[in-house]
Amino acid sequence: MSADSIKKALSGDISIGSIVKIQGWVRTRRDSKAGFSFVSVHDGSCFDPIQVVAPSDLANYSEEIQKLTSGCAVICTGELVESQGRGQKFEIQASAVKVTGWIDDPDTYPIQPKRHSFEFLRDVAHLRPRTNTFGAITRVRHVAAQAIHRYFHENGFFWINTPIITASDAEGAGDMFRVSTLNMTNLPHNEDGEIDYEQDFFGRETFLTVSGQLNVEGYCQALSKVYTFGPTFRAENSNTTRHLAEFWMIEPEIAFADLDDLADLAEDFLKYVFQAVLDECPDDMAFFAQRIEPKAVERLETLIGAPFVRVDYADAIDILRNSGQKFEFKPEWGLDLQTEHERFLTEKHFDAPVVVKNYPVEIKAFYMRLNDDGKTVAAMDVLAPGIGEIIGGAQREERLDTLQQRMAEQGMDAETYSWYVDLRRYGTVPHAGFGLGFERLITYITGMSNIRDVIPYPRVPGRADF
RNA sequence: UCCCCGGUAGCUCAGUUGGUUAGAGCGGGUGACUGUUAAUCACUAGGUCGUUGGUUCGAGUCCAUCCCGGGGAGCCA
Question: C1' nearest to CA of A381: which nucleotide?
């Protein structure tokens, strides 16, 4: 017979008395001398494990079932019955329990039915998905990803698979990972004594992408509403709870749109994703609220129900300066907001996500649209309590001469970006887009405090295990 | 990269002003008991105290070094 997921077995959709087969991994085993053992089995399909009641008259009872420990893989067949005990509605009265995989040395099996530190679990990243917390994170991550695609699809956006290997540095800042097939122990050199990248695979220097934005702009100015959702790489030596060297980024780009349109999109989009997770992962979210972040559910509900706070950069600076709060770095027009400033705005002053708009031109990237005041650009950041910047975006500079002037000011290579400038030469339109760090979003939703714990196998400076 | 904190049993931790044989809970094993719920009770096994060097009669404890981890900052998503 075919197997059912534990989710289905617990759903109430299977009639009592049916014979079911479930397959999964043992979480705990409790023996009763009354003649049976309780085996708690999970398969990842839902938060709850199912309780399998294995009677002592099973052929392999004393030889196998009584020797089950956490982590053993089992296939259980039996009657789905209403539970006689408290704590679960249904359970399986087993007629057969087949053990497909034992634990080599139960004494040293890392995943025990107890609380582990997240630091320890990072060292066993291949086994941590078996825990409650990482099972829940994985399901939430999946549901959020699906909701993101669904939101865009339903709103007429096209998913654009921008290249992962690139020759251009999309933001003019930040170290990139080099992509090369040259023999590193015997590098070819040109006449000037420099490394001869003409002999490399692509005939030039190439890197892993730090953003799909520049590429997606081309598709935006043809298909109007587009987005990217893919892996992104930053070789910065950042050692924080909110940075990864490899992460997933979502970058919508909309044509015939200005900064306010973009802020509207960011707000509508985030609310949709939050609602989807609340709707589709109630058990997992309840777990986060119970064990990880007490306000995990409440704050999402609050956020969905109220408009986002929007504030101009200049006004944010005034709020900070008049706050009476002592800051290590004094807030000043022209300087970027420090983490302490963002925290004050999101956690104390507004106690909500905040959209900060119109930053000084000096502190923002070349492609952001210059405002009429000549001092600011149409950029926006969405700041979330506890996380900081979750979204960074801007209306793009669509005017050819202004863009060229800004590129020249920053000493950028016109040749490398000629194709990007072309987009302003041929049917240019006002357009805007933002970048959302997927893992930062998951961090915010779940209340997990370290971004390394919301991606399956984190890559950070000095570590690429697994 | 900078600042601070940490590294003791499979895991989570305690370990006094430096002093005999380094402890607990959970997990593992054995037994008892029970429709159990991270079950309970008893017994039991399990440690190169991160590395290297130094101070000392004596170092888990003090100093230096390196390695690793965590938190904060910068940069950003």
Answer: B77
